[in-house]
Amino acid sequence: MAPARSSSPPQWTSLLYSQVRFTLKASITDKNWGPDMTENKNSAAGNPVRTAWGRARLGTRTVPAMMPAIPLGILLAALIAAAAALAGFAPQQPLLGAAIVAALMVLPMCALAWAFLVDRDSLKGAASRPEESVESRWYDNAAAGAFHDLLIFSGLGTAVLFLTPLEIEGSVGLLAVSVVGMLSAGVRYTVNRRRG
Amino acid sequence: MENTLPELRREHGWSQQKLADALGVSRQTVISIEKGRFDPSLPLAFRLASLFGCTIEDIFTPGG
């Protein structure tokens, strides 16, 4: 019955998964199970309303999660764009290059900021014990399978590069590993979900 | 594992969503348990038993 725990999900998934684990751990410690173990309180203290995008805690009060997530995402995208310009991305037109990087990064960074800031107990329809839900099992199985796929892929790839004159750039190789890891985890999760 | 969860739930007049909310899990989890495709954790099994006022053995039986 115990799910496989040896997993190495891709960077993005790992980051979000860590946040999910962190928030659910916080929600577990915030539980107030009654004598019959059937009732729990909403841990979004002072804000019993659940919304589609949830709320974020700022000190003692809560605000819609998108309110701090959007400016933080824009700031992160701007920092990445500045770093890209300083690193010599598009040296002929550094401003245009930075603008393109910022435009491409702003949505993912806003999403990342939201994932880190949102109090999951304020999300509409969120289970209060996601670690005991079947979706958690699907994710664990998919992550464990993806880890083994990555081991096989990187092992075979290393052998091919070692035994043949083929050469690839490090960034291309890492991109390939990331794509394989994400595809593997995504496909495996979907298969698990369809099986029920 | 086989289980009598669908019968127990119907006896109490509970929907899958209501049971899921009471347990703090997703509705899909209740569906998967009822179909025997997902074995719940021990704490979840204890909460189920407590919820219906019976023992775990009354709900789950080996096999299937």
From TrEMBL, chain B:
Q: Where are the transmembrane segments?
A: none
- Keywords in alphabetical order: DNA-binding
Q: Where is the HTH cro/C1-type domain positioned along the sequence?
A: 7-59
Instruction: Say yes or no: keyword DNA-binding present.
Output: yes
Q: Which PROSITE patterns match?
A: HTH_CROC1 (PS50943)
Q: Mention any Pfam family matching this sequence.
A: HTH_3
Q: What is this protein called?
A: Transcriptional regulator
